[in-house]
């Protein structure tokens, strides 16, 4: 059973945007998405998940047949990732202005989806069950629930998908483990989507990954199951932490890892320790595979002593994998290997070598290096899906969006400066 609610937000002007972009929790005052799922213990697991919706852009009215673009954030991020840059540069607003019905998801455990019907994430007992999830749960449970709701609510049958970092991981997990969902996507654009980690480039995190299971065990035994939750700072001086040297060691290790991953504190919305540990296992094992328990438990859960790998040959969606040489969390060779494993995927290198992993949602340059390319690709695909019948309204809106930008032959830095004046 899946129930869902959403928040529709108007495209704010620069004068009132500050109220929108403060934190993800700015939206948590309204219940937005409620998914009722089945947990492994067969009891009902109910977690609230917000979806933000921008149904149309500036100076546009309601229109039921607008193509849907669904966006999914990365690890420690939330829906705010796609509006943080503001009306001029954020992907969420740019796509709405170009004529799309924009839906932005939230994974379980982030600030505005940190709820549960029967479990209290702030309770010292309940929190262990609440945060017992990895990126696989987001891909298998959260993502399909939100996508199905968007489709059912609008009466459409397919969507365009944009996933950043873990948002790409969740997409690959969903379509490899539930291949029937491939038919619900027109196309996907994965922005530094994480999957294969054979050539993981960050040496510091690679060293930390070697101790993944140790750090994870120390963290859980010390009561640390959530990263950057509402009481993260307060817990520094808690009695439990002061009594447990192991807990302090685990915490410091996790903080070091997060600093390597995210430099902008505004983009940190919280996550489970187990999410990080799952990536750590994959980095250390150089495999993109399911959670590793122990040989015996793996045998019970998977029917084999080692976890199965995610089969990317089952991901048949028309997919473009955007990557950058400046990304220290994703290697070009892994991106190419993933694309080769998928029957309808291709790669695209961002034309700015110092463009980083987080810049896909944090840099104004994304508008010119990534967004404009995706908009052109989506317009062509929408034309094809309609079997030769061009969506004139969408075309007009796309042209208007392009005309609103400074001419493309001008240097990006100059265009940014002109727009800010």
TrEMBL record:
Xref: Gene3D superfamilies: alpha/beta hydrolase
Top-level taxon: Eukaryota
Gene Ontology terms, MF aspect: hydrolase activity
InterPro entries the record matches: AB_hydrolase_1 (IPR000073), AB_hydrolase_fold (IPR029058)
Domain (AB hydrolase-1): residue spans on this chain: 67-182
Keywords for this protein: Glycoprotein, Hydrolase, Lipid degradation, Lipid metabolism, Signal
Annotated GO biological process: lipid catabolic process
Pfam families named among the record's database cross-references: Abhydrolase_1
Record has Lipid metabolism as a keyword: yes
Recorded family membership: Belongs to the AB hydrolase superfamily. Lipase family.
Entry protein name: AB hydrolase-1 domain-containing protein
Organism for this UniProt entry: Leptidea sinapis
